[in-house]
Design goal:
The structure is a homodimer of 367-residue chains. By secondary structure, chain A is an alpha/beta fold. Chain A contains eleven helices and 15 strands. In chain A, the strands form three sheets. Chain A has a seven-stranded mixed beta sheet, sandwiched between helices. A four-stranded mixed beta sheet of chain A has the order 11-8-9-13, covered by helices on one side. In chain A, strand 8 and strand 9 form a beta hairpin. Chain A starts with 13 loop residues before the first strand and ends in an 8-residue tail after the last helix. The interface between A and B is large, with 58 and 58 residues. Strand 12 of chain A pairs parallel with strand 6 of chain B.
């Protein structure tokens, strides 16, 4: 086992407690920012519930939690035969997969756990060794996620100078990953390097991930953070307060067009007008080389109630229509650079994205 | 008395009920959009309370309500001597002026009522005639406000073609004036002209005037309206859904820079990028020829709680800073035209603003 990943961010979104048998400890994100409560999850049903209720959210964090969910489902089942255990593993994975039917990282992590179990079974291992192997694989998924965050943080921190003030949108931080986040990783790293920084966080309507989650985790880390409403970003930029923008991404097309939380495109347009660099931080798994440009990315439309009744009371008149797209697309010409765990793509376009993906072995062909 | 102003908007924010003695009827805006409740105000204390609680808001609407508040204070006081009545008028005005210490239209309307009373007194009128005269002046203030709205609506409607979809920010509608509004007046007028239109309304954080008030009054008028969060305007514009933007203004500098509700500047930048016209609708009283450009306009900063606890529960972690500027400034080069009750200023700049103000007699000198 490698040494634990040094984490300059004090927030541990997903953790495994003890060895085997053990349990999974999550930050109960539905209670943030009012209370910092940890949720100890001891079985598969508990993990399904935690994922479904958004106690844990953010694609990478869900993947890590689901992998530990598999461990919860198989630990203590040493008396089963290896064949019976693998059948049981299938059922555990199917149960966890039903928690949130659209979360890609959930399926990816569960498939990796299932295939690992099958590979160990094919090598003729006994049930005890199978369970140990699945636990090791879940830890590896967690460790790799944290390591990717650390590498993005190191590349991104090169772009942050002492004294800078940064703007971010939504939450692409430790609370969304098994490590220190994507967009926020360069901030934690810059801080650990001794740089003084300050951050403005868009509250990010409708679900307020910026106000509730980004502000919380940055303030936990001692990084000065100021919350603004989404409509204030233009004012703050026009006042010359912002030196760089850092955001995450949900999907990046082959030409570098960036799909991210609704409102990101507006921030990119404003940053462009004020000649402030606009950085996107995302692991290579976010790239979708099958999609030529942003127009091919489907945009999920979410329930009207998130906008109309987002705070426990109705703010939009009954009967009035609401439009609630969850994401928007920032065209690549507004993106100063995309920061990945394999390095930075300056002024991304199809050729530059393809070059990095080839170098990293994600795309076939010579770099 | 002239004929009542035809109002294609069905919302009557401020009304006088009966003749003398009568009372003032307000839409209780604090209950919108959950309930449409009218508030009958019978005395000065009731009007002070209504203005203070924001039961009536919007600078022009407050001015009209305050003028009627003066009538409530003097009606039935015929037994006083004229001199005594004028002293009483002073006290009534002072009481109303204390309701909201920063509302310019409030002071303007009260000063006009006081001066009118003094002028009538100087002409030797008796108390009954004085009271009748003050009532007539309040009605005139209301009528002139409604008439300005009607004229802005007519000029603005020339810019709206059948089938257009419009975007607006905050509430510059009937609920903010004694007539059919500023930014929304062209919409009501276009609709009355038989044009089919649809409107997207930014919810307008932090106080949600777009979701609560604009959506309510447009839907009351049968104009299809869709509410979006402020961060969605960029997406909606990039989808090609918007043909023109209409907003109001709180102050316009001599060079045409426009101060308006926070978030307006962001909408202007987005409209500019998507080559969508950006129209500002405001009466001449909004212009401030003493201020050369937008940098000279002071921006009010409001309490953090509006952002952090805007919905009856805390959404920002305790101890985290909030920045809450109430307004921003849109530079004149992003403004396609300013629509006033005296006509439209295309591509406003200092020379064009001065030309209109001279023509309207607001600035000295030859047009």
């Amino acid at each position: 086992m490698s040494a634990p990943v040094a984490n300059p961010c004090p927030v541990e979104t997903v953790a495994w407690v003890g060895k085997l048998p053990g349990h999974c400890r999550l930050i109960e994100q539905t209670r943030l920012p009012l209370e910092t409560v940890f949720l100890d999850v001891h079985d598969v049903a508990g993990m399904v519930d935690a994922i479904y209720r958004l106690a844990v959210r953010g694609a990478p964090a869900i993947g890590v939690a689901a992998a530990y969910g598999v461990v919860l489902g198989v630990q203590g089942e040493e008396r089963r035969s290896p064949a019976d255990l693998l059948t049981h593993l299938e059922k555990v994975c199917a149960t966890l997969a039903a928690a949130r039917p659209t979360a890609v990282n959930l399926f990816w992590a569960l498939q990796r756990m299932r295939r690992h179990g099958e590979a160990l079974g094919a090598r003729g291992l006994g049930s005890k060794a199978l369970i140990d192997g699945l636990y090791a694989e879940a830890c590896a998924i967690h460790r790799e996620d944290a390591d990717q965050c650390r590498r993005m943080g190191a590349f991104g921190a090169e772009l942050i100078r002492d004294g800078m003030t940064l703007l971010t949108h939504c939450n692409a931080g430790a609370l969304a990953t098994g490590g220190m986040g994507t967009a926020l990783a360069p901030m934690y790293t810059a801080r650990a390097q001794g740089k003084t920084i300050a951050v403005f966080a868009d509250e990010t309507r409708p679900l307020l991930q910026g106000a509730r989650l980004t502000a919380w985790e940055l303030s936990q880390a001692g990084i000065p953070v100021t919350v603004i409403t989404d409509g204030m970003a233009g004012r703050v930029l026009s006042e010359g307060r912002i030196d760089a923008v850092f955001v995450g991404s949900d999907r990046i097309a082959r030409n570098g067009d960036v799909c991210n939380k609704i409102g990101t495109y507006t921030v990119a347009v404003l940053a462009n007008r004020h000649k402030v660099p606009f950085y996107v931080v995302a692991p290579l798994s976010t790239f979708d080389p099958e999609t030529a440009d942003g127009s091919g990315i489907p945009i999920e439309e979410r329930p009207a109630a998130e906008v109309a009744e987002g705070f426990g009371r109705r703010t939009v008149p009954a009967g009035v229509k609401v439009y609630n797209p969850a994401f928007d697309v920032t065209p690549h010409e507004l993106v100063t650079a995309i920061i990945t765990e394999h390095g930075t793509i300056d002024r991304p376009d199809t050729a530059r994205v393809e070059a990095l993906l080839r170098r990293a072995g994600v795309l076939a062909g010579v770099a």
